[in-house]
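Here comes my example:
=====
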Amino acid sequence: MDTRQELKVQKKREHDQKQETTIPARVFVPTADIYESEDALTVILEMPGVEKENVEVRVEEGMLIIEGRLDLAQYEGLLPLYTEYNIGHYARSFRLSSKTDQTKIAADLKDVNSKAELLKVLAVGLKLPAHFGNNWDALADSVEDGDWLGKNGVALVLMHTAAYRKAHGIDWTKLEDILAEAADYWRERHKPFWVFVS
């Protein structure tokens, strides 16, 4: 029996914009694969031409929103001989579980240049307890604190991390280790603890 299948090009879907967008230009819905492992929930989106630093991840009103901005300047003056799809930006959103507490979600690392600044931004953005001691041990204790997590779990979004990861690799690895250990801790207790990094 011949099991070959003809390869078909998937048509690009334009995003249905029911509200104003922060991205001017055409916006398309990227295709997505979602994988769940013991350690993480991984979302893979296809956004051809979009650089890592032009991807924004945020949580608003129970929705995980991912937007990718294409550098349209690279297409100026080009006259294509053949195209299979139009160019534009990308946007996709996913509804988070209603069991997830979205009040403690975001830390923006855009202007963070040291470990001390990182811990301060995490303390404020993640609404860590007042007794947070601004060190790695205190962070590890805080994210495994049942009072902080609450009864329904939490989703954390760490935004604009690329520059910090590049400049402070050792500190970033330590942060990843702490969050991975917290994810293991809460998974064993059947509590949602998600971390999204952009």
User: Anything to note?
Assistant: The first strand starts at residue 13 and ends at 14. The radius of gyration is 20 Å. DSSP finds five helices and ten strands in the chain.
